[in-house]
Amino acid sequence: MSKLVSRGGAVWPNALARILFAVLGGYVFTYSLTAALARLLPLARIDAAISATLLSFAVYTVFVLWVFARPLRQALWALPVTLVLLLIGFGPQWFAGGEV
Amino acid sequence: MNASLLCLALSASYAGMLALCLGTERHWKQLAAAAPPSLRAWCRPLGVLLLLLALLLSLQIWPASMALVGWLGMLSLCGLVLLLLLPYAPRLALGLPLLGVLLAPVFMSG
Amino acid sequence: MSRQPSLTQSMSGLHTWTGLVLGWLLFAIFLTGTLAVFDRELNWWMQPELQDRQVDQASAVQVAQRWLEANHPAASAWNIGLPTARDPSLSVSAGEQRRGQRTLIDAESGEQITPRETAGGSFFFRFHYTLHMPRFLGIWVVGFAAMAMLVAIISGIIIHKKIFKDFFTFRPGKGQRSWLDGHNASAVLLLPFHLMITYTGLVIFFLIYMPAATDALYNGDRDALLRELRPGAQQQQGAARGGEGGRPSREVPAASAAMLPLEQFIALGEAHYGAGMLSSLSVAQPGRVNARVEVRPLLGSRLELTKGEALAFNAITGELLRAPPPTRTSLLVQKVMAGLHFAQFGGYPMRWLYFLCGLVSSAMIASGLVLYTVKRRRQSAAQGVWLRQVEWLNLACVGGLMLACVALLWANRLLPADLAEREGWELRVFFGAWLAALLHARLRAPLRGWLEQLAASAVLLLGLPLLDLQTALAVPDRIRLGVDLTGFGLGALLALAAWKVSKRPAATARAARRAPAVMAEVQS
């Protein structure tokens, strides 16, 4: 805790925001990207599902690193991107009443 | 047979890491200051060759994809052994591959 | 809001905090995972009633068949667990195959054996991926720790500027410098292992951790996804349960027929999977016209994890009914990755490589935890309270867990064999030892605490061969000797570590002056 405080002024709100964004936001982002990727990959349905899921852990890791490497306001760009990915991934289910 | 191949593979892995280590200026000065400096340029290619030899030996012990896994594991662990020997027993660090090669036939007859 | 720090600064902070907070969990995961590499061997060591009869699988299956014919001639299914190199026991059961309800019989005489109930090496395996929590919660906590490990690894690489220059650098005896060297070296030299083991660990439960593709493409129905993966799998499960499609008890048993001797199916199975690569055999509807024999492989004939796979034969004619279908590529990738984590392939040389790498990884994590405190001990005393917490948590999690693991082995041999609920008692000793170590860590000055706990674990490990000889019921076989000698070797390492700690002046009297005020009260 002392390391967080000693850098002059209240650093911890920024750190806390980043942690929450990285962990929770990261999961949501990865979830959306995996869903979108599963739908977009030009493979058989089962292969697309497996491949996209296998990659997800690398995506999540990179996202977490990125949230800490870039200024927090840049990280907020993840929000609209996530929304778009969710639409790609789940659009057919939400708007066309179910997939398969 | 497997045990002696394993012994040889470990020796080759270790020797390769040792050669790569000697190729760096810091460790050349530490271990081989007495030898002619022009030899240092040969260390890295020699190291790579020895590591490839280790891979070939691994392929005799395990089927293809397993051999790759075993090889990487051996490189890592041999590198660690080298790292620990360097500050405490530099002569043993240099002599270990020879010891390994000498031990290999022992396992074969066993 | 503060200004954006440089990449090195941000990654350094991330590495430190992720490593520290999750490091305690990660050490437990890595240590128990390392011990789980030899889970079958530990299971065997912890049941000294079992003897290695050195019989081949063909003879063993004859013994098993005789027992089953004598005791369960009209059963709907027979299951036989064959003796293997890692586990020379012979087990049999009748009816629906259920874990843990097998009868162990002597592979030579066919007599039933009742070994002591024990947590076994399997305890370390389960602890490794659940941390002894309810399965669902434990898997998620371990998964979270694994993600933190990935973040720590990559951030560690980013901040390690002189990664190639310092590849073989280790300067002992220089305090913080040495700890940093040790942490860097063990992390970098084993980088392929660390990345592989962490990522593949996540891949094992990949659909649980990341259900996005299941939700998007299968409406969240994971069973539908699994069905599409292996169309043959459902049939295999049905057959293993002793009947095709329906519940066995409702079927009218078919007419009797003579089956081929079961040892012939060993040969047929080995033709497909390789010599010595079979783990079990089961017979559905034994002695009847529709009898089927299923032969299951030992995990490890291939890199790919072959759990649940089986060859099916007609028991009367020996005709091959079903071979495992070739796996589609995407699933093959997942199974290979899972196989890399389970480390069931490559025989004992590979198993030892994994074990040694696991030990080094555990040491790497511990060195990071210690490095944190060593670095800050030198800094201002204003950090006293926080540092004190980290110090005792480090000792409790690292030293305490090691002590608990070896205490489990001692408990296994010292608790009476016929104690009721023996497994529960063994676990009580495990967690009791850990709790005692935790309290010890809270009460003692750090260096003295480390010295005492390392020494205690060392003594128990060095004494393991003696314990085995004293409490064994027969001459120790190859497997038990292996456990004894490995334990002895690890004990020697810990003794060396304890000796090094004892040479530090702070480990003795002078610690009282430098430790925070509360410690000075409790000591002396």
UniProtKB/TrEMBL annotation, chain B:
InterPro entries: DUF3325
Superkingdom field: Bacteria
Transmembrane feature ranges: 39-59, 66-86, 92-108
Protein name in UniProt: Iron uptake protein
Keywords: Membrane, Transmembrane, Transmembrane helix
Pfam families, sorted: DUF3325 (PF11804)
From TrEMBL, chain C:
InterPro entries: PepSY-ass_TM
Membrane-spanning segments: 20-38, 137-159, 187-209, 352-372, 392-413, 425-443
Pfam families noted in UniProt: PepSY_TM
Alphabetically ordered keywords of this record: Membrane, Transmembrane, Transmembrane helix
Protein name: Peptidase
Source organism of this protein record: Pseudomonas abyssi
